[in-house]
């Protein structure tokens, strides 16, 4: 027998679609804004939308995909919490003939491939986001030595892996900067605050805090202030996302920069799905372009932030 190359399941062109969006957790404004974007798009794109909340558990997210397959969804928009544990879910959907689009996070490329196991990844370039934060920091940090602490996102998630790589590689080009600690805060404000409190005991002299998302950056600012430090004056805080609280922190002078990572995937999901149903070949990565928010433009963007 000859092994057949797996081909992507087709998507019928029709008036309404049954769509699954298994959200991974809802403990931060980014996730809430993303879910809302899908719910709002259900109206305009004629979706019967099923959403679930895995509460921060990859195992629960896998089970949620299972139940959506059982309910007969036409198409799946999956934000995989971590790169490896969701691969069986992606393969199961493909085997059930359901076209899957990964949204906002990706899976391990060695184990599942766009154009084969799923149609495409819709999302940002996380390596580039980390690189842009590092380059802004190199340009804007005043001083000849910097002790850097990094708060990583969810262990095993694509944005945590890539935002670390992009930042680490770029910051290494300037010998003033030394990363003395890099620990996960699970993309959560509370965890970011707790981890920063602990790290401050070993590194009270920290000059730069790089957080992989704004929620952890806000948590770090709280911990720094509690320890008598002055974010924006004696310590530079930099991060990624572009939430309302982060833009406000920039306006207040407590944060230096946040590189955008947009949660508003609903319209892009609708458009890409329709292109696929029309028989267009979809690029393996539908890349989202990100802005950058600093003192220069935070005030004019804060009202539109989430
Ligand atoms: O930066 C973070 C969220 O996967 C791009 O996940 C997303 C990230 C986002 O929890 O705030």
TrEMBL record:
Query: What keywords are assigned to this protein?
Result: Signal
Q: Which residues form the Periplasmic binding protein domain?
A: 25-281
Task: Give one Pfam hit by family name.
Answer: Peripla_BP_4
> Where is it mainly found?
other
Q: Where in the cell is it found?
A: Cell envelope
Which SUPFAM superfamilies is this protein grouped with? Periplasmic binding protein-like I (SSF53822)
What GO cellular component is one of the record's annotations? cell envelope
In the UniProt record, does the keyword Cytoplasm occur?
no
Where do the coiled-coil regions begin and end? none
Q: Which GO terms describe its molecular function?
A: carbohydrate binding
* Alphabetical list of PANTHER family matching this protein: D-ALLOSE-BINDING PERIPLASMIC PROTEIN-RELATED, GALACTOFURANOSE-BINDING PROTEIN YTFQ
**UniProt family annotation:** Belongs to the bacterial solute-binding protein 2 family.
This chain belongs to the protein called: Sugar ABC transporter substrate-binding protein
């Amino acid at each position: 027998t000859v092994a057949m190359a797996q081909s992507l399941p087709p998507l019928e062109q029709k008036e309404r679609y049954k769509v699954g969006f298994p959200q991974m957790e809802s403990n931060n404004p980014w996730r809430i804004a993303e879910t809302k974007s899908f719910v709002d798009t259900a109206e305009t794109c004629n979706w019967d939308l099923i959403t679930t909340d895995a509460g921060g558990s990859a195992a629960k997210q896998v089970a949620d995909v299972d139940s959506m397959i059982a309910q007969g969804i036409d198409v799946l928009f999956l934000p995989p919490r971590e790169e490896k544990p969701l691969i069986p879910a992606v393969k199961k959907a493909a085997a059930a003939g359901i076209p899957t689009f990964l949204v906002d996070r990706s899976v391990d490329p060695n184990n599942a491939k766009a154009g084969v196991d799923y149609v495409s990844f819709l999302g940002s370039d996380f390596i580039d986001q980390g690189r842009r934060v590092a380059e802004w920091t190199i340009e804007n940090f005043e001083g000849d030595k910097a002790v850097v602490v990094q708060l990583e996102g969810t262990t095993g998630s694509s944005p945590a892996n890539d935002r670390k790589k992009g930042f680490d590689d770029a910051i290494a080009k300037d010998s003033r900067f030394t990363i003395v600690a890099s620990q996960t805060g699970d993309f959560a404000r509370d965890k970011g605050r707790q981890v920063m409190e602990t790290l401050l005991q070993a590194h009270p002299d920290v000059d730069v805090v790089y957080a992989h998302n704004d929620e952890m950056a806000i948590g770090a600012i709280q911990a720094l202030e509690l320890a008598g430090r002055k974010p924006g004056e004696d310590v530079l805080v930099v991060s990624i996302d572009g939430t309302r609280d982060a833009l406000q922190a920039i306006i207040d002078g407590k944060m230096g920069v946040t590189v955008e990572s947009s949660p508003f995937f609903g319209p892009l999901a609708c458009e890409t799905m329709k292109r696929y149903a029309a028989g267009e070949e979809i690029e393996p990565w539908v890349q989202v372009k990100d802005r950058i928010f600093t003192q220069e433009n935070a005030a004019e963007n804060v009202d539109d932030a989430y």
